Amino acid sequence: MSSQIGGLSLEQARAQLTPWTQRAAPIATQEYAQRIERARRLMRAHGVDALLIGAGTSLRYFTGVPWGASERLVALLLTLDGDPVLICPAFEEGSLDAVLKIAVAKHLWEEHEDPYALVVQVMDDRHAHALALDPGIAFAVHTGLRAHLGTAIRDAAAIIDGCRMCKSPAELALMQQACDMTLLVQRLAAGIAQEGIGTDQLVRFIDEAHRALGADNGSTFCIVQFGHATAFPHGIPGVQHLRAGELVLIDTGCTVQGYHSDITRTWIYGTPDDAQRRIWDLEQAAQAAAFAAIRPGLACEAVDQAARSVLEAAGLGPDYRLPGLPHRTGHGCGLAIHEAPYLVRGNAQPLQPGMCASNEPMIVVPGAFGVRLEDHFYVTDTGAQWFTPPSPAIDQPFA
């Protein structure tokens, strides 16, 4: 068995978990201002003079406010001129002030009042009439606004994605720190593997490790699967206990100031059989082919096709048939763990420098096992750069 797998006690692993010292800088106030101006340029290009951004990752992107959506409307109304307007419950004003990173005009509403009427009132005051709505906002908000607006509400996806898809150097640095943390956690999780260990034990350790390193809130998610359960892309319920000769799939990540990591490693505990080794090697080749295809201007769907071509040449698939690749090759990542751009058939979006995405063309062999190798990359002026180095071999998960 590789020296990277097993042989490490829990105490030895914990001794390597000290708070991260080389921390990436937070997003600067000036960058938030640049995001607002970029959104306004895109609003003009799309013939929109008002943009409503709901609580969630887009609100955080434009204001720095980490606020989850609820039945109470908290939203940013952006018009072509004037300060952005924060619409929020009056009793939440102090909490929002504590995390705001930009100057805003605030319009508060009390519990018995209609916040949607307030949005439209502010639009009228600013002579704004063409409203685009954050696609991540609840349909109830759309319904509430339609009761007061006499015009159609437009989809703001092109505006918001146009701002968020291409990451700045500061965003890339935060994502790099998150990826570096998770890669270390993955290494330590492989190190403490031993026969009989439960998936639940590894999940707990991985969360503990992320917290010890200084991630925002421990693991944002964690999938640990052994043996036949690795054939299910997002796992199956219940605790499994590790046996020699089984594949181990660990998919986990964390956030640093809201920016995500998301890394999957699949490796063998013991000695692989011929089928396991063949599929693992094909997965590695498909991931490498997808990465080699990446360049500015290439359609997102072409990256997906590059991975599928490797698998189809080996007799897997085609399309989403199994054994083969049952899902898209990759998803964008940033403040949301899944965001544009998506590396999937039918997506003609050209790749641009600064775009970030996963590269994970998983192979599923139904009833037997699955192999997923997932690393993220960002597009450069000439190609792409990995956030984390890919796995070298089935029994050597880390470069």
UniProtKB/TrEMBL annotation:
<feature type="domain" description="Peptidase M24">
    <location>
        <begin position="174"/>
        <end position="381"/>
    </location>
</feature>
<dbReference type="Pfam" id="PF01321">
    <property type="entry name" value="Creatinase_N"/>
</dbReference>
<dbReference type="Pfam" id="PF00557">
    <property type="entry name" value="Peptidase_M24"/>
</dbReference>
<dbReference type="GO" id="GO:0102009">
    <property type="term" value="F:proline dipeptidase activity"/>
</dbReference>
<protein>
    <submittedName>
        <fullName>Xaa-Pro dipeptidase</fullName>
        <ecNumber>3.4.13.9</ecNumber>
    </submittedName>
</protein>
<keyword id="KW-0378">Hydrolase</keyword>
<dbReference type="InterPro" id="IPR000587">
    <property type="entry name" value="Creatinase_N"/>
</dbReference>
<keyword id="KW-0224">Dipeptidase</keyword>
<dbReference type="InterPro" id="IPR036005">
    <property type="entry name" value="Creatinase/aminopeptidase-like"/>
</dbReference>
<dbReference type="InterPro" id="IPR050659">
    <property type="entry name" value="Peptidase_M24B"/>
</dbReference>
<dbReference type="InterPro" id="IPR000994">
    <property type="entry name" value="Pept_M24"/>
</dbReference>
<feature type="domain" description="Creatinase N-terminal">
    <location>
        <begin position="35"/>
        <end position="166"/>
    </location>
</feature>
<dbReference type="InterPro" id="IPR029149">
    <property type="entry name" value="Creatin/AminoP/Spt16_N"/>
</dbReference>
<keyword id="KW-0645">Protease</keyword>
